[in-house]
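Reopening: structure tokens for the zinc ion complex, inputs below.
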Amino acid sequence: MNVDSDDNGNGESQPLEPNLVKYKLWIWRHGKLHYRELKGVQKVCWNCNDCRHRRKYCSLVAASSTWIIRHLREEHQIVKARYAAPVFAELLDESME
Ligand SMILES: [Zn+2]
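Re-run output (same inputs, fresh job):
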């Protein structure tokens, strides 16, 4: 049986945080991380600041920055500023919800 997430023969517990989270990225300025359970698996999600300020809920799985960048561009016309310094991700404070 092939399992997509286990192709290196190492069946150890999956890392909770995707690689994306370890890096400083400009997108973290526009959203915060939170953990969400999807189908019994805990996923790291990116929660859009702009949507939250408009009382909309937007949460994208933070496995790839592609969707996040697309969301910012298409929903908020936000693109990477040339001199925007990358920052580390911050966790969403649950009490804000
Ligand atoms: Zn948004």
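The pocket of zinc ion is lined by residues 48, 50-51, 58, 71, 75-76 (CB under 6 Å). The beta strands are 31-38, 41-48, 59-61. Marking as resolved unless the reporter disagrees.
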